[in-house]
Amino acid sequence: MPRRIYCLRIRVFVFAAFLSALLTVVYLFIDFSSGGRPMLYLFSKPVLLDGSKTLFFRFGDEIYYANQGNIVADYRVLPGADSKTFEVIDGIWAKDKSHVYLRYEQTDFSPSKFSVLSCYFSDGHSVYYDDFPKGTVTVSVDAENFRIIGEEQYSVPKSDCKAKDSENVYFWTRIIKYADPATFQFLNQVWAIDSTGVFMDGYLVKELSPEEMHAIGRRHVTDGITVFAPLYEPPYFTDLKTTPEAFRLQL
Length: 251
Prior knowledge:
12% helix; single chain; 25 strands; 32% strand; mainly beta
């Protein structure tokens, strides 16, 4: 084979490889699922231009939501979102001067009255829980007195789905029966007390008394004499038959 033809073939091969790589890069940076609009990143997480880590990001005058759960990234543009006043409220929630957005969908909530309360959200009148994908659950109609109640040093930030209003105590979306909201308090991640009762994961433990009851770690309590562990069926506790001092040595 003449040397000139050989060199020509090498050049054609190199050019084809370069063109293929270039087209691959262009393809990766074009999000065909959102109308062929350019993506902002390949290997990093979406970020707003102010540097805040979020699922929402701004490109030009448009706002996008990074739709998760796909092998190929799916970016949804938020139609009508005002990029100048757009702000992320908390995770999957955002708002601008006119609307509140849940993920990439525009809601009917008023941005001036809307708020996120840990895993709940409120329109200023009622409090709701987003039971995705089943739908929205109304938790309370007393937003003015609705408060998150955490677990002191055992609380996990932004994951507290335990709350109360003027009439009820809530464990996620369930009303805790027999609980007194005025005196109810969590001892750790699973145990709580009020003025008359002890509760495990939101269920009344009739056999135990709140007097002298306090936490030992994240999942156990003691009355000062013995140690109790959670049981996820009636009677909702088990006596470990050990003293608090001996149990602490095992922690």
